[in-house]
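Hi support team,

I submitted a single chain yesterday and got back a structure, but I'm not sure I'm reading the token output correctly. Could someone confirm the output below corresponds to the sequence I sent? I've pasted both exactly as they appear in my results page.

Thanks,
R.
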Amino acid sequence: MSQPPTGIQEWIYSLEEGGGRIWLTRFLVVLIAVFLGTVYHLTEFRNLNAPEAMDTAQIARNLSEKKGFTTQFIRPASLHLMQKRVMNQGQDGRGILRQPHPDLANPPVYPLLLAGWMKVAPFKFTIMEQTSDGGFERHQPDVLIGYFNLGIFCLLLLQIFLLARHLFDPWIAGLSVVIIYGSEILWRFVYSGLSTVFLMSLFLFVIQVLVALDSGERAQTPRTLSKSLVLALALGGLLGIGCMTRYAFGWLVIPVSLFVLVSVGARRWLLTPAVGLAFVIVITPWLWRNYSLCGQPFGVATYTVVEETAQFTGTRLLRSQSPDMSRVTLDDVRRKVVLNVAEIAQDELSRLGGSWVSGFFLVGLLVPFNNRSLQRLRWFLVMAVGTLIIVQALGRTWLSTFSPVINSENLLAILFPMVVVYGISLFYLLLERLEFPMLELKAVMVGAFALVAALPLILKLLPPRMPAMVYPPYRPDFIQAFTSFLNPDELMMTDMPWATAWYGQRDSVWTSNRVVDEKGDDFFNINDNQRTIKAIYISPISADSPMRSSFIRDPDFAWGRFYMDALLLQQMPNGFPLKYMMPGGLLEAGHFFLTDWPRWTRKGGG
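Hi R., thanks for writing in. Yes, this is the structure output for that exact sequence:
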């Protein structure tokens, strides 16, 4: 057994030639990683941008405050489903908004995790409590949510190393961790507030269980049936948790079941149903909750299939109080899938997760493995990619346009870690076939490969610094200032209800499809039949719409025209109950705030 160095000369020798050199290298790598992470946080952090990130954050806050799975982001389509359910039960559908509105858009796991974090960390939701000098740049809860996902990211890196070392060797594992750590897109997901990094980690757990099942069946001493059954149930449970984090993740039960069916031998007819049974057990309580509230197991998420079809472009469907599903045909859905699959294949397939390293995975499909387990696992990844391409194409909505790449509909990003591991294995395979005159050149080649892969992140860290606020359209301090004029129990209508719910902590209904409409799909239907609307906030999202060429013709810009009429003509529709515009420079900048009385004239608002 080797003894630790005792003298200075022995320490120097250990650092230069002995085992200490390995630890010194590891220390320097960790130091560089911490430095890059710190620089990224200080220079590239931005407040939440994806609407679904703000949505889940405000639900988590409600959970942490013991308000249950309720939401302050109220979609008219969600209101429609609840009204329809109540009326089918013979009750009056009016006044539903007078009660806390249940969330019918999001699965529960990620909000629950954030709610637990909010119980532990010192969240300060009021901006004036965040700064002592009155200045504002970063919303403190956004930062803490970023820290939460950063912790999951660290777990993800550890999972990648352990799994890649088990499947291949430590060199492939180490380079895989470096490549993934240096992925600029992945860092944006970490600070986005989305559940993507958590789902990446969950998918790696699924892979680990699949590997354990496969290896156990082919060992010299096969695993007992009871242990294999436990693994199958755990596999179904993990898939169920993933589905309850993001509904689309549940479609992975198809490739997982096929993998189990092929790889576990004679036990397949018991273990495969066990996976499906555990999956169904996990998701059923939540689906039943949704069905009992609105008649749809997946709530308003059911509409994603028909969103962005010819009849329901943009946000029109979710803002409709009486959507007519009969207008959507099978050809409309088929056309949506075909067009989106073509776009995904052209723009995203070659760079899964936003990195060209993923191309090595695709090329590697031409190179067979001698190890049958590695071969089967790779084909499982191919099935998962194919499944998620179809699901992503079918479920693409306005969110992908509003926040490109960094959104909850980017499902292929979930597979990125495993795709990188297999891609790096091909890189090392090609590297081993090269003859180097000096061994050091091989290390230089590996270092150059990692450096080029991380180049987008490195360039991103260079000056100039990225503004911390995603403006336009989001200014958390502006939003909180506007919403402070309303009492906590008052309702507002806005074109960014996810932001006013998260930053402003006020019940916010999405702007209706029309300001005034004979068919009742308008402001007055909610104001007169559900709950009085005390204020309207039109942000740059709609205020900038007159700058678009389709402004005059497109009915989705009704509130943009309303803003222009109020700003330029100083007039409201006949009988409109809100008549007082907040004056000042923010009005011309696209922040239109309209109330029932001049609330800003009194200190503390309403």
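A quick pointer for reading it: Strands lie at 70-71, 73-74, 101-102, 491-494, 507-510, 533-538, 580-581, 592-595. Let us know if anything else looks off.

Best,
Support desk
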